[in-house]
Input
Amino acid sequence: MEELLKHIVQQEPKLISLDNLYQLEAIFLERTKSFVAITNLFDWKELRRVSFLWEFIEEKTYSEYIKSAITNELNAIRFLALHVATWLSKGKVCEYELKDESYTKFISTAEFIKIIESTRLTEGFWTLDENVIESSAAFVLAIELSDVEKRIEIKDVKKRIGKWKNELPGQS
Output
């Protein structure tokens, strides 16, 4: 029986060989690094996926890039949005949740709050993707919560965004 199991395991079909996977990872890293040399990673449509893969494959160069990129406040906010999960109902966002605090290896929570509070008063903040703006508001609300589960309903996020818009310079 043991011999039969060994034979089955050895014959198990593989999606891709380990050698091919390493080659694909090398190609991915080479192309990612060449693209980020000429474009901002935070402008990419597949930001979340590329970030996840890059960090998994080669954490050192990913960390170096992120540390440099988030010195720009808008990049910092877009980076933070990667760490705020969305909950959907019928295809629409119904809640946000802050459960991943791995961002703190790059910048503290308090520093992110300062960045959001100052940047939200600039025009650049309001040109960000709506999901990033909502994630920023959800992050601030989640930090203000004292309970362990940091889930924020979309109605509360929208309410905070409305408050922020009323606080913009030139608004009455």
About this structure: The CA atoms of residues 48 and 82 lie 6 Å apart. The mean pLDDT is 89. The radius of gyration is 21 Å.
